[in-house]
Specification:
CATH architecture of the largest domain: 3-Layer(aba) Sandwich
Number of strands: 9
Structural class: alpha/beta
Largest sheet: 7 strands, mixed
CATH class of the largest domain: Alpha Beta
Strand order of the largest sheet: 5-6-4-3-7-8-9
Order of helices and strands: HEHHEHEHHEEEHEHEEH
CATH superfamily of the largest domain: NAD(P)-binding Rossmann-like Domain
Helix content: 40-55%
Distance between the termini: 52 Å
Length: 211
């Protein structure tokens, strides 16, 4: 049987649902309707129902959605119900901020190693993880399963390091370097363009001021 195609647009909305449902669960809310989700997330109720119906629906007419169950099911779809081993390449300001971000653990992303080329940071610890020299990266990858490599290095170093990560066994790259990485299409890369988000914010400010 042919698998159902799920658009990337739908996949990109799932973390928003997951985050909001987690907040509802923490607040003790037991059920929620698609209209309540619509009001909170600024999406149409129809869109939300269509998105969730791609995976089975999970709702009951006249009741809505059980918050805890839907939160759990979306977590399974996103794969955050199982542990992921993550390393960080680059212990500058951004790399250290990522390493210190406590919510990764809540989402089953365990930062197990940090690497940098600078002597002044090698040996320091961030949340119990010691920063290691870059020349130990290859051996580490060959001895450990690495699901995600967060790349927070300068543009000039990103390409070579990215290819090394792929060749040495990292399963995917979470790329914060300001460059498009030319890697095989079947290799998983998620690019994070921080300035793109800032420019969208700038556009919204401009539109509001001109209105």
């Amino acid at each position: 049987m042919k698998e159902k195609y799920i658009s990337m647009a739908v996949i990109r909305r799932l973390p928003t649902y997951y985050r909001y449902l987690g907040n509802l669960e923490d607040a003790g809310v037991e059920r929620v309707s698609s209209q309540e989700l619509s009001d909170a997330l600024q999406m149409t109720a129809s869109q939300i129902r269509q998105d969730l119906n791609n995976f089975g629906g999970f709702g009951q007419q006249g009741y809505g959605y059980n918050v805890a169950k839907l939160h759990t099911e979306i977590g399974k779809i996103l794969g955050v119900d199982t542990p992921h081993h993550m390393i960080i390449i680059g212990a500058g300001n951004l790399g250290q901020a990522l390493a210190g971000y406590s919510s990764f653990g809540k989402r089953n992303f365990d930062v197990s190693a940090i690497f940098d080329v600078r002597e002044e940071v090698i040996g320091k610890e961030i949340r119990g993880v010691t920063i290691q020299p870059m020349d130990s990266l290859e051996a580490y990858l060959k001895d450990h399963v690495v699901d995600v490599a967060a790349l927070t290095v300068p543009k000039s170093a990103a390409v070579e390091i990215a290819h090394n990560l792929k060749d040495w066994g990292a399963k995917s790259i979470w790329n914060f370097a300001p460059i498009d990485l030319e890697l095989p299409k079947d290799y998983i890369v998620e690019n994070v363009w921080l300035l793109d988000s800032l420019m969208r914010l700038s556009y919204s400010l401009k539109e509001k001021e001109e209105a």
